[in-house]
Specification:
The protein is mainly β and about 230 residues long. The protein has 3 helices and 13 strands; from the N terminus they run ααβββββββββββαββ.
């Protein structure tokens, strides 16, 4: 089964960036980023896209290092789906993709709270050494579940391929064709992990069943492209 999934992912990422093949269109995939504009995105808890920090550059949503405009989110919200995206960072970089984001959980500010697929330079960023057994490293469910030890991360400056599957309470995170995290939303195990995490006092954390996809502004340079989503019918 995993071999078939890997082949399917290879087909998705082999296509021209920010485009859908006829097979993808037939399967129900949609582009969340067209490679040319910020259509479909806005600032977290904002009506419009930030006027600083994020730009479209070389077919990617690009966040240069320095002062930024805050996290960005999809205009639409989603519940059951398969999400794929490509990302790259520079040395010492830190970013992330969050999902099932409910903006109401944050009263003010431009940073969302929710499940986060960690994007990080494990070798050069100090946060990689924090957390518990790797819960702050690339591919982790940030601060909650470490990624598989046999994960494969590409060299800094190269594009990595990531995938998130949300199917009811079952959630998976993939990195470069390999599943690195798997969990059940609402399970006793996840509740125990949340209770030991920085989200322990965040009301409703882990309970959101439908929400925005969010790309994190962590102040470091990061690029995202080929962001696609396929709804899973229940």
């Amino acid at each position: 089964m995993h071999t078939l999934i890997a082949l399917a992912l290879a087909s998705i990422f082999a296509a021209a960036p920010n485009a859908l093949s006829p097979a993808e269109k037939k399967a129900g995939w949609r582009l969340l980023f067209d490679g040319k504009s910020t259509a479909g995105w806005r600032g977290f808890k904002q009506a419009e896209f930030p006027n600083s920090g994020w730009v479209v550059k070389d077919g990617a949503l690009y966040r240069p290092a320095g002062k930024g405009g805050g996290d960005i989110v999809t205009v639409d919200q989603f519940d059951n789906y398969e999400l794929v995206f490509e990302w790259k960072i520079t040395k010492g970089g830190n970013s992330g993709v969050k999902y099932l984001i409910d903006e109401a959980m944050v009263k003010s500010g431009h940073s969302g709270v929710g499940f986060e697929y960690q994007v990080l330079d494990d070798e050069a960023h100090p946060d990689a050494k924090k957390g518990i057994e790797g819960t702050h490293t690339v591919g982790a469910l940030y601060d909650l579940i470490p990624p598989a030890k046999d994960k494969v991360t590409r060299a800094i400056g190269q594009w990595n391929e990531s995938r998130v599957v949300v199917e009811g309470n079952h959630i998976e995170q993939w990195l470069n064709g390999k599943k690195v995290v798997e969990f059940e939303r609402g399970s006793d195990d996840l509740k125990a992990r949340i209770a030991k995490s920085k989200f322990a006092k965040t009301a409703g954390f882990g309970e959101v069943s439908k929400g925005h996809v969010l790309i994190q502004d962590h102040g470091d340079e990061a690029s995202y492209r080929n962001i696609k989503l396929r709804p899973i019918k229940k």
